[in-house]
Amino acid sequence: MPDLRVLVVDDSVAVRRALGEAIEREPGLSVCGAAPNGALGLELVERSHPDVVVLDLAMPVLDGLDFLSRLRPQHPRLPVLVFSGTVGHANEATLEALWRGASDYVL
What we know:
There is one protein chain. The protein is of the alpha/beta class. Helices cover about 35% and strands about 20% of the residues. It has 4 helices and 5 strands; from the N terminus they run βαβαβαβαβ. Helix 2 packs parallel to helix 3 (about 65-70).
């Protein structure tokens, strides 16, 4: 079975690098791309065809919430995992992300 392809969308170079390294160490997972904002993330979704997206919410150019709003009409079933310093149980941004189509979130 081929690796699960993960797209990382986060404005922090350090977070993209750390997540990418952690993902690559896991058997059955590989990073198919990384983007510093939601606009570039949407472009990479179309080019790299990920199996799952790991998404930050607070980013320049196009934030995670707007990314979700633009992604869902074309990719309603693509799993999106919110991984952000702003997430938390009952956090307003987290609830908004789930409402806009995020699959789940990580604290």
